[in-house]
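Re: the pair you flagged

First of the two:
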Amino acid sequence: MGKTPLTPNWETTLEAAIGQMLTTPGFAAVISEDHINETPERVVNAFKEYFSGVYDDPAAVLKKGFETGAYDEMVFVKNITFVSFCAHHLTPIIGKVHFAYLPRIKIVGLSKIPRMIEILARRPQVQEKLTREIVDVFNNVVEPSGCGAVVEALHLCMTIRGVKKDQAVTRTTALAGAFKRNEVKSEFLDGVRGEKGWL
């Protein structure tokens, strides 16, 4: 099936569909109308927030940088939390990113990295794709000697439906440039393992 572009009235269409669902006999029998009167509008507003990243450019937040000066060692930002949504079921993906890079020409403000990740996460996502995108966007814009990302996440499509494995954590890694060399890769992954968390 091909991609279906968002139409100007997608909000109205979604609101009507949610309203229709909530007024079917099954739903109407278990919840009072008072509680669901404004639910379709709330759902649409929530979806706009959940998927705000489809309208934003993650590369734009990385455009402004600073000269590296004498600094040429690894810059590591750990435990960047995010919430995304599974492209297959539109259920939440809750996780964290560990990201590092080796400066070459410039460094970026530390807040820019979480902002880039937030934009990419606020799209219908697949974790493998998200991990690769984080590295590719940063690598293409900042042009470091190398960079890498480790993403760990819980997928509610696995915990509240389907196999219902609520402790299953998915870990994915993407590397670029110097981070593919064994010694740099080891330094990066050792730093990730040193964190108290799921690993």
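Second of the two:
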Amino acid sequence: MSQPHKRSRNLHNTNTQRDMKLKSKYKNLLLITFLFITAAVPLRPVHAQATDPEGFHILKKGSSMKFFRYRPGAPVIISGHRGGREKGYPENSLEGFRNVLRQMPAFFEIDPRLTRDSVIVLMHDATLDRTTTAKGNLNDYTYEQLRDVRLRDFAGNPTAFSIPTLEEVIVWSRGRTVVNLDRKDVPPEMIVDLVKRLRASGHVMLTVHNGAQAKYYHENLPKAMLSAFVRTMKEYENIASSGVPWKKMIAYVGPAITSENAELVRLLHSRGVRCMISVAPTHDRLQEREERRKGYLQELASNPDIIETDLPLEVWNVMKEK
């Protein structure tokens, strides 16, 4: 073989080997990049247990309207009333919310109130006596004075947990759950300003009692969900007159679905609205666990879309059993 041909073949072999090495490096680089991206951005499907140590995440970022849209046969959603009432975990506490989400999917109805210096904290009562180690009116205290106050659980036992601010809870809940803000003594404009500042419309829900309240929040927070009181046809017509799209709402229809409100529930379903009942003032108050269980099963038989409860873990276990 002539020398030029030999050199040409050697050069071709060298180029081929170099190309193969480059392709191998390129494939390895692609694999490493893919593994890095998938590790950095975990997928969190609705109602699936995430890798977060706090457990369940109920929705993806910014998808609360889609999540709460009524669909026939969809699973019942549980709302923890004031977060929940578990031994050792106070109502309206971050630790209480975390305790529930470690064990089940849920969203939470919570109670914003103002301190003397206009910090929004979570507290159902206007006074501190029942749920904390302090006494007197909440709005007589500054937030700084409340820092050393500790929360009590439902049995009155002091805990190591402190009163959270609404901002802390909204920040924590992002990507995990939805918080439904009940109406207490906080001016609506303060709620709007906070939700806007935190860019939290996708995971904050606002309780409204009439069409005027619904319209105000819709105009100022167009992407936020509303939890509307729609227990009668008169309340339905009042909310409807606000012009707020039904796709932005869930409807609280009372403590149960009965023959008296069944037609109203069908009407709301036709508008794509999930209907919520609350067992907090009824079955949750029964002393015996078995009696509560029978009550929960009774309400589940009427096919509510959402159940609000002081005892979310008990209701969840009954749902799994059913």
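Residues 2-12, 25-51 have pLDDT under 50 and may be disordered.

-B.
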